[in-house]
Design a protein that fits this description.
313 residues, mainly alpha, Multidrug-efflux Transporter Regulator, Chain: A, Domain 2, two-stranded antiparallel sheet, 15 helices, 69% helix, 1% strand
Length: 313
């Protein structure tokens, strides 16, 4: 009968492909104890020990440590629990390896310096929670203690960078740039000035809001002027300024007079930081959203044209 068959360590090695040294080690650790010994003291193993050794080999090849293997063999922990825990650990390792691959590809494409590579690796390996904390710290410093535009602040807090499990080199590069941007003291100070302006406007009666319709109107009318080659200092530009100024006045319940034009110019100049637009572009790349078209040229033209427009009596 098979139960009566006994194998030497050498025979187990030939049957399993494991080395004699490895089998002897497993036997010494009590993972595959010998069934009995010969008169000369050599260990002998039966078919049950052979099956146990096959299981040990399989679990070790799957990456389980000896302690976990022992718990499974001794039935202290169900195999399904050990397998599930190990699968979760492998998921983490796989995500880490994918992220490292993306960093290395980004380094290769950018020709990064050692210093840039170190920063890229440091920022890229942050967890989702750590990335959110970094952005929230930026928002807290920029808007903390101010009654700024609540819709805008809520949008900032809800739109967090979420690197996918397998990011592209472009997504890693975008996150690194965004991470550097939100830690930049000058950019934080610039956004703080914007927040202070919003708070002052709210104190003066502005209910706030994102005013998407106004942004679209500027894009449409100034975009058409740019496409037609209209210079911001030209008489044709004054007509565009007058149209947009009226729309701002209607939206904010103000008369379109000289004071309104000064207010509108201050509003545009306060928001004139290209890094703010870059923030949203980077966030879109990271999260795989459609990247918004740049409005920098449009608002630069509008600001220049507003400065040059004839005064309103």
């Amino acid at each position: 009968m098979d139960d009566d068959v006994r194998y030497s360590i050498g025979e187990l090695s030939r049957r399993t492909g494991l080395t004699v040294k490895t089998i002897r080690y497993y036997a010494d650790q009590g993972l595959v104890p010998p069934t009995d010994r010969t008169a000369a003291g050599y260990r002998r193993f039966d078919v049950h020990a052979l099956a146990r050794l096959d299981l040990v080999r399989t679990l070790r090849e799957l990456g389980l440590d000896l302690a976990a293997v022992r718990r499974v063999l001794d039935r202290e922990t169900p195999l399904r629990e050990v397998a599930a825990a190990h699968a979760e650990a492998l998921d983490v390792q796989i995500r880490t390896l994918r992220l490292r691959r993306a960093v290395l590809r980004a380094v290769a494409e950018r020709g990064s310096t050692p210093e840039e590579t170190a920063l890229m690796h440091k920022l890229a390996k942050l967890s989702d929670a750590e990335r959110r904390r970094l952005v929230n710290d930026f928002v807290d410093e920029a808007f903390g203690g101010l009654d700024a535009n609540p819709e805008f602040v809520a949008m900032l807090r809800s739109a967090m960078p979420e690197l996918p499990d397998e990011p592209t080199a472009a997504q890693v590069e975008a996150w690194v740039e965004l991470g550097e941007l939100v830690r930049d003291r000058d950019f934080r100070a610039s956004v703080r000035r914007m927040a202070e302006y919003q708070a002052a406007e709210r104190a003066a009666g502005d209910p706030g809001g994102l005013h998407i319709a106004l942004t679209e109107a500027v894009g449409a009318e100034v975009g058409a002027a740019l496409a037609a080659g209209v210079a911001p200092h030209s008489p044709e530009a004054s007509a565009v300024v007058a149209s947009l100024a009226r729309q701002y006045a209607e939206t904010f319940g103000r008369p379109d007079d000289a004071e309104h034009r000064r207010w509108l110019l201050e509003r545009l100049e306060t928001a004139d930081d290209p890094r703010a637009e870059r923030y949203w572009q980077l966030l879109s790349v990271i999260n795989g959203w459609p990247v918004p078209e740049s409005t920098a040229a449009v608002f630069a033209w509008f600001t220049t044209a507003l400065r040059a427009a004839p005064a309103v009596e």
